[in-house]
TrEMBL record:
It comes from the Bacteria. InterPro entries: TPR-like_helical_dom_sf, TPR_2, TPR_rpt, Ycf3. TPR repeats lie at residues 21-54, 89-122, 123-156, 157-190. Keywords: Repeat, TPR repeat. SMART domains: TPR (SM00028). The lineage of its organism: Bacteria, Pseudomonadati, Bacteroidota, Cytophagia, Cytophagales. This is Tetratricopeptide repeat protein. It comes from Agaribacillus aureus.
Length: 234
């Protein structure tokens, strides 16, 4: 009886002082923004304990788990989210991104397809699915997805970067150079893009400009540039 009364009193006190679901979600987001990802996950879990059907919380938790490189947990988190709401594209998209990291490429592509059924005009989904196709060696499908992504958003530099690397796989060197030139214009400090641009120009027969690009890459700290310079620029 005493334990029951004490328990009841404590419970009443916790209810009156306990943070709300929204407060817990906000606290988790705050922790995420300061890169305190473990604490962010803990807050999101508390919010989900109050409301296990809040897709926003699952999405936020996915980002924190992804930052922690807990990719299997990301998949588990989003499978749980889909049980409550399969009408939001984000759980499929977040799960697909994690599956790519786990090298579950075919499963990732299926998840991206489900995300696109719900949100067909989201450029990032096409961009990431194209990356999956690239890994499978399905270069035509990859280029097609990168083309869709570009039509939807002209300001995604990695559309040009990823498509350029795909063009190189199918010996479309001129198109690769065109895309890599756009990439380094948009992101001039991206050392790897300068590296691929340099190699592409050398393949095209323009060693002088190719070596200049490789030297820019080396100056930016891209580790493969020095070997490429020693091989191609003597």
């Amino acid at each position: 009886m005493i334990k029951y009364i004490l328990g009841g009193l404590i419970w009443v006190g916790l209810v009156s002082c306990s943070p709300s679901e929204q407060e817990l979600l906000n606290a988790g987001i705050s922790k995420f923004e300061t890169e305190n990802y473990e604490d962010a996950v803990a807050y999101f879990d508390k919010a989900l304990a109050l409301n296990p059907k809040n897709i926003k919380t699952y999405n936020a938790k996915s980002f924190a788990l992804f930052a922690l490189k807990k990719y299997e947990k990301v998949v588990e988190n989003n499978l749980e989210a889909i049980k409550f709401d399969s009408s939001d594209y984000k759980p499929y998209y977040n799960m697909a991104n994690a599956r790519l990291e786990l090298n579950q490429v075919e499963a990732a592509i299926k998840d991206y397809a489900k995300a696109l059924q719900i949100k067909p005009n989201e450029a990032d989904i096409y961009l990431n699915r194209g990356t999956g196709y690239y890994r499978l060696g399905a270069y035509f499908e990859a280029i097609q997805d990168f083309n869709f992504a570009q039509k939807l958003d002209e300001n995604l530099p990695f559309v040009f970067y990823n498509r350029a690397k795909t063009y190189l796989k199918v010996d479309s060197i001129d198109l690769a150079i065109e895309d890599l030139t756009k990439m380094v214009t948009m992101m001039p400090n991206h050392g790897e893009a300068h590296y691929w641009l340099g190699l592409s120009r050398i393949l095209q027969g323009n060693s002088e400009e190719g070596c200049l690009s490789l030297k820019k890459s080396r100056a930016m700290g891209f580790k493969n540039a020095t070997e490429a310079i020693n091989k191609n620029c003597q």
